[in-house]
Amino acid sequence: TKSFALSNYSLTTQIVIINLSTAVFALVALIFFNFFLLISNKNLIDQQELIVNRLNEITDYLSKNAIKRILTFNDNCIRVVKEGNSECNQNEFLNKNYEDKLPQLDPTYTQQYIYSNFLDTQLAIKVFAEDWTKFADTDDIYATKEEIIISDISNIEEKKTSKNQGFYSIYKNIYFNFYNLFQEYFDKKKLKKLHSKHFDDNLTITETIKTKKIISYIYKDQENNFKTKFSSPILKEEKVYG
Q1: Can you tell me where the transmembrane regions are (predicted)?
Q2: Domain ranges, residue 57
Q3: pLDDT tens-digit map of 85-114
Q4: What total of structural domains would you count in the chain?
């Protein structure tokens, strides 16, 4: 019976066999390690948590600051024509009007808050009143933005010419490119399992008002890109204002 033994080979052959075996073992270990990283990556979960936290921040702020009684004026009583006319007394008119008006989402305050704080973010934000009137929409200011972003593992670096790159830099770029390519593939597989039919804003608003909870779903847009939509009610004392 013949058995494999390194001693049967020359020293040079032994070194080659050892190096090849080490390289193969390292390659297999690297493949398994990267595969584990790819399937356990939490990019999508982290992204969703980030969006939910930002959404809670917006709704909490508007609930505390933008729900108020809004004064309106009677067109027939804009000017006080006669002194002592209680019907057209401005102070009495304002007090009476203020007490009779029900609290509602202030469109001006809402627009100022959204456009002052969220125009430069990655999210496209819309705010609707309870009657479905749209108060703010960042898409009306800028072009449509991606709502799901699959982040690369590497940082954005300045481009270098191949002449100035060493072996390590070339290897690192190739590794990151392949890693990100496979990461995108696995992320898309996850999204395919989660994506659903796209619902328009009216249906989304109706469901949000009905449940009084955050709802979300993933869908494909007209360009076949995955996007996600989150909707959260603006609540105050268990009443939905937007």
Answers
A1: 15-39
A2: 24-66+106-240
A3: 445 555 545 545 556 677 888 888 888 888
A4: 1
